[in-house]
Amino acid sequence: MMKTWGGVVAWTALLLVGTYADAGLDAALQDGKCHNYKSHDTCVKNECYWCKSAAVPSSCYSAGEAQSLPPAVFQCDKEAEERADAEEEKKAAMTHAPVFIADHVPVPFGEEAKSCHFYRTREKCLQNTCYWCKSAAVPSSCYSKEEATQLPPAVFQCEHDAVVGDMWELTETPLDAAGWEELFATWKEHFGMSYDTAMENQVRRNIFQHNGHMVAAHNADPDVTYKLELNQFADLTWDEFQRLYLANPQNCSATSSGNPLTYSDVPAEKDWRAEGVVSPVKNQGKCGSCWTFSTTGCLESHLKQKHGKFISLSEQNLIDCAQAFDNHGCSGGLPSHAFEYIKYNGGLDTEETYPYVGKDGKCKFNTYHVGVEVESVVNITSRSENELLGAVGTVGPVSIAYQVVDDFRFYKSGVYSSKKCKQGEQDVNHAVLAVGYGTENGQKHWIVKNSWGTKWGMKGFFQILRGANMCGLADCASYPVVK
């Protein structure tokens, strides 16, 4: 953990770097493809280039990478060199040909998580927990942790966001104003923040300092079971954060009625992520639309379980169209109400056909673009964590809602609990997705997927105390039965 305030976090030297020539869609896909081949024969057979080095293990590269590797360090087979020359001639011949260059290279849902080589910028690379590596010999590029550990430190310098991230887990604060100024400047650079005026900068700096004292005081307590950090929300007041990111409190007591559900053979622990049925973490932005992300995340998981494939579903469809079911767009709603809307509406559109804009708009639902249909909705008996446990343990991820209080926005890791939050059905202000449960250091906890991006918490997830209906998390639990 870092307790110093100044400077940029030291580069960690680690990994093998290849270069990616920006040659449009085909080159982008080719680069990512070649890294999947682990043997010389398979590499060459697929028109890639097998390159050796005394410093690092042999590996498979694309044409652009093979040509850019320094010959004093890497030796690529003769076939690779001949193909590289031929490919260069092909590129030259196509220079004046009409081409389509995509602004975004579409890849199968979830595929980017499998390969750091898809990320072309330092920001994207670090956001997705990969390593961005520099060398004087070759262009900078993005690699996995496993690749990073193989690089000679004398040649490559790599940066990893987890290293930078430890800087914000304060246990003590700067001693003077200059220290705070330096820490704030480093934070702004790390999170890409800037302000229009010097006055606004000073206001945000003061808020940052206030939040820093709160984070440091919490982390210095040896008895706490979770850690806080100065994350992307560190320049906001609690009132601002509530207005921008949380839903208005909403009564969900409708789920308290009905027949109690029973589940058999409930495992002692469960993590649906390990079974590959939890879709990637999304980011709701400055809109109180958490309920839509809880809904789509739950549906995406149940679709994967039933039909074997991920389909990214439209949160914006729910924001714009589900008001008749007591939902309120960016001002809040409930997953149980959203599931009912989808059931009676005849389905929910896909993310691709109805993309997210993060603000209230006119309903543009199109029945031809439906990605999922709901057969029925199962509401867990309110406040019954045992029933919730059975559902998560044997059925799949379950949408839940609870009350967020001021320190939760800075959560980093550990098992969260609070004496400040309430447990009433009328107090819930945030909806998320329970994807599992387990025990850590003797504490039973839930594993939960949030919608504040992968830089928040534990790569977008958090753990919260299980067995005490903490913050009312079992008050409003529900899941769909998909067709």
TrEMBL record:
The keyword Disulfide bond applies. It comes from the Eukaryota. GO terms for biological process: proteolysis. The keyword Signal applies. Residues 184-241 form the Cathepsin propeptide inhibitor domain. Keywords: Disulfide bond, Signal, Zymogen. SUPFAM superfamilies: Cysteine proteinases. Belongs to the peptidase C1 family. This is Uncharacterized protein. The lineage of its organism: Eukaryota, Sar, Stramenopiles, Oomycota, Peronosporomycetes.
